[in-house]
Amino acid sequence: MEVVARINQAKYDVFRWRYGLSIPKKLTLAFGMACLVGLLAQVRIVVPWSPVPVTGQTFAVLLAAVLLGRWWGGISIATYVGLGVLGVPWFTGFNSGLTYLAGPTGGYIIGFILAAFFLGHLTDKYVRARSFFSMTGLMLFANFILVFIPGLIQLGLWLRLVGGETVTLAALLSMGLLPFIAGDVVKVILAAVITRGVTPKAAFNGETDEGKWAGWRVP
C-alpha cells in the first residue's frame, strides 16, 4: 500500500508541476509533443483504395491532450500543424506546406487540433474524466466526431474539386472512415489505459468536481 501511495503522490506532483509551469516551459513541452506527433506521423500503412493512410498520429494527439492538459494539448497540435505548413517536413511521408494541408488528409489534421483542445480541457477540468471508461468514451468521441467529420468533409471536397469525382456517401466512408475504425479503437484503448495509469485521481488545479469524486469508483 505504501508503494501505491507513493506512486499516486508522484502522479499528483507531476501534474501539479505541469500545471504550474511558466509559459516558456509549457511552450517547450508543447513543442516536444509536436515532435512526437511528427515522428509517429511517419508510421503509416497505405490503404490501396484510399488517399488517406493509416498513421500513428492519432495516438500521439490523444496523449498530447492528456499529458499537457487544458489549452496546451491543443497548442502542441496547433504548433505541429503551423510548423508543418511553414515547411517543417513532419507531416506523413515527410511532407510539409500549405498544399499538403489542402490535400485529402488536411481535414483530419485540423480535426487533431479540435480533439486535443477538447480532451485537454476535460482532462484538467474533471477528475472523473481521467478514469479508464470515461476517457475511452471521450477519446472515441474526439476521434470519430472531431477528427473524422472534418476529415471526411475535406476528403469529399478534394475528390470533387481536384480529382473531378463525385462520390457517394458510402464510397466516401469506405475511403475515409471504415478502414481506420479497428486501428483507431485499438489506439484509443491503449491511450485510455496509459491515461488511467499516469493521471492523478486527486484534484490538482481546482477541478469542477473536486470534493465529489472521493465517493466514486474511478476504474
CATH domain topology: Arp2/3 complex 21 kDa subunit ARPC3
Based on secondary structure, the structural category is mainly alpha
Helix fraction by DSSP (H/I, runs of at least 4): 55-70%
Shape: globular
Q: Mean pLDDT across all residues, rounded?
A: 90
| Strands side by side in the biggest sheet | 1-2
Gyration radius, in Å:
18 Å
Amount of beta strand: under 5%
Number of strands: 2
CATH class: Mainly Alpha
- Major sheet description: 2 strands, antiparallel
State the low-pLDDT regions, or none: none
Summarize the structure.
The chain is mainly α and 219 residues long. The chain is built from 9 helices and 2 strands. Strands 1-2 form a two-stranded antiparallel sheet.
Structural notes for this entry:
There is one protein chain. The chain has 219 residues and is mostly helical. The protein has one domain (2-213): Arp2/3 complex 21 kDa subunit ARPC3 (Orthogonal Bundle), CATH 1.10.1760. 65% of the residues lie in helices and 2% in strands. The protein has 9 helices and 2 strands. The protein has helices at 2-19, 23-40, 57-68, 72-86, 98-101, 106-125, 132-161, 169-176, 181-198, and strands at residues 44-45, 54-55. The protein has a two-stranded antiparallel sheet with strand order 1-2. β1 and β2 form a beta hairpin. The longest helix is centred in the C-terminal third of the chain and has 30 residues, at 132-161. The protein starts with a helix and ends in a 21-residue tail after the last helix.
